[in-house]
Every structure is written in C-alpha cells, then in structure tokens.
Amino acid sequence: MSAAPGSEAKGGFLNRHRRALLAVLGVVAVIGFIHFVLPEIVGLGPTLRRLEGGNAWWLALGVFVETLSIAGEVVLLRGVFSQPGSRIGWRASSEITLAGAAATKLFATAGAGGVTLTVWALRSAGLGADQVATGMVSYEIVNYGVYMAALAIVGLGLWLGVFSGHAPVGVTLIPAAFGAGVIALVLAIGAIEPSVERALARRTDSSSGRLQRWWHRAAAASRALRSGLRAAFAMVRRHDPALLGVLAAWGFDIAALWASFRAFGHSPPGGVLVMGYYVGTLANTLPLPGGIGGVEGGMIGAFLAFGVNPSLAVLAVLAYRTISYWLPTLPGAAAYVRLRQTVSGWRSRAPRGERRLPRSLPGGQPPTVNSGDANKATPT
C-alpha cells in the first residue's frame, strides 16, 4: 500500500526535529513548573522575586568567571587531542567545547550529548578510533579525577574540622568515601587491566559470530581504558600545562557560584561552598534536559544540610544556574553551526586516499547543513 501524500515529508520533518521539539517542550515545562507550581508548593514567591534585586556587579563577575571556566575546558581539550599536524587547534577546540556544552543541554545524563558530538568531531578531524577512545578516556579521567579528589579531600577535611563549617556526615564523610572509592577503583582497574585484556583476547579467539564481536568490543574498550589511564598519568608526570585547564574549569565554575552568593548576601565558608557545589553537581547524572531541576535541587539541599540560610541558598543557586546554563547556550549553538562548516572544510581538503571521514553524526544525522536549516540542527 502506498503512503498517503505528504506523510513521508511529515515523518521526515518530525524525525529531523524530534529532539529539538522535545527539548523545547522540556524547557517550557520546567519554566512553567518553576514559575507557577514551585512558589505555591513551598512559598518561595517572594524569594524568587528577589532575584531581580541581586547586586549586578557580583552577577557580572559571575558571568566573567564562568567564561574563564569555559576557556579552561577549551585548554584541556586542546591539550589532550592536539598533536603535531593535528586539525585540533584552538579554533576547533573552542568550537567542539562550546557545541558540546549546547549538546549537553539536550542530554544531561553524564554529559552524553556532549560526548557524542565530541567523538563525531574528532573522528571527522581524521583521528582514528583508537586515538579518540584513548583521548576521551584520558580527558574524563583527568576531568573527574579532580572532581573525586575534591570530594575526598574537602569532605574529609570538613568532617575532621580542618575546614570551617557545619559538617553533617551525609554531605561530608559519605561523599568523601565515595570519591576515594572511585579513585581506588580506577587505580585498581589500571593495575589488573593487562590480565583482563589478555583474558578478553582469549575469549575473542575462541568465540565466533555475534559472541565474538561482543568479546572484541569488550577487548577494545579494555585497551582504551588502559591507554587512557596511561595517557592521563603521563600528563600528570610531565606537569602538562593542559592540567591548568581542568583546574580553571572547575575552579572558576565554583567562583561563579561564590559570586552568586555574594550578589544576595554572604558566601558560606570555602569548604562548605566547594562541597555543596560538588555534592549538588552529582545530580547532573539524572536524565533531565540540561540537568534542569536536578542540579538546583541537589545544590540547594546540600547547602541546607550545611546550615546555609534557605532563602540565600535558593537565590544564589538559581542565579548561578542561570549563568552556567544560559551563558554557553547561544555561543554553543553558533559554535555548532561553525563546527559543521569546519568539518565540511576538512572533508573538502582531504587528500585522495585518506581515510574516509564519517558522513554523519552517530544516529544517522548528516553533518552538513545548508543556510536554511543551520539553526535547526541538533546533535544526537
């Protein structure tokens, strides 16, 4: 039976713009919830209206340091993936970082959208699959190594009284144990990984068909983990300047939260500020659009557990999230369009015989756009 006239075009339009439409609906729903429902539930109407009365100079400082945080991410990405003759220079690193930040707004689960777009861009730049896998593992280990180390050090320091501030076990010792446990697990995996890789290789050789392909992928993931760990440790041993990027990315983002507190009053002690930030950020793993709602609730809850004034905590966290969420969004959308043009340029200048670059983003979306739909494209 033939399809009804126009049904194919309609289906194609919905498929092309499904994620964008869902993102818009999600944002509208969240905004409506915050504006109409939340104040009625918890009586925050007067508190939310006070957002307009924040000190503009402190909020401007928050915007400035958040910009420096994004720059730190660019430095780290370039430091991990830039090599002699590589196409990943400052411009490409900036476009990938900003476009990835915009993609993360659509897929908040541990930054899945940003990771997918970054992998696509790196493969399009001519990096091999092994290079990309190793680099991404190294990037994540360096990035989240700082995260887990901060949880362990600051949480334990607060609990022991080294840092000033109220220190409930639930937001100090337990997160500290979690951070230390993750670090120990990664180090243990690095120690036993060669044996695991040999075992997976034997399984691959002794299997066939679909099972062999599964064991082969598992062995490839094991190799990427080993190579990524080695690359990350090598960066630390040689004191790679790119490590300053990850410190700047986390540090200036926390500074934006500090400036947001100062815009409405006083900031909690440094240890409390850092721990509330990191404990709240754990909620970014929730599958919400851009982490909206999860991170805010996590941070506010953490600061309330530390004894911070509820009204001040709500104002500061919402102001901070407004800065950290919206600041990269418009530049990120523009960077995504520029990145697609950059990839097209890489492809057009590829010499004959060079490995064919990927023609689409993961999921089948074509990476090239025309002027008519450039602003509607979304990564998958």
Helix content: over 70%
Uncertain runs are 1-11, 40-44, 353-380
What's the Cα radius of gyration?
A: 23 Å
Order of helices and strands: HHHHHHHHHHHHH
Annotation field: number of helices: 13
Could you say how many structural domains there are in total? Answer: 1
Query: How many E-type strands?
Result: 0
Q: Helices and strands: which structural class?
A: mainly alpha
Which outline best applies?
Answer: globular
Rounded average pLDDT = 77
- Describe the biggest sheet? none
What's the assembly state of these chains?
single chain
Question: Describe it for me?
Answer:
The protein is mainly α. It has one domain. The chain has helices at residues 7-42, 45-49, 56-81, 90-106, 112-124, 129-160, 173-206, 209-237, 243-264, 270-281, 294-305, 310-326, 329-348. Helix 6 packs antiparallel against helix 7, helix 6 (129-160) packs across helix 8 and helix 9 crosses helix 12 (310-326). It starts with 6 loop residues before the first helix and ends in a 32-residue tail after the last helix.
Entry keywords:
380 residues; disordered N terminus; 72% helix; mainly alpha
Q: Can you describe this structure in just a few lines?
A:
By secondary structure, the protein is mainly α. It has helices at residues 7-42, 45-49, 56-81, 90-106, 112-124, 129-160, 173-206, 209-237, 243-264, 270-281, 294-305, 310-326, 329-348.
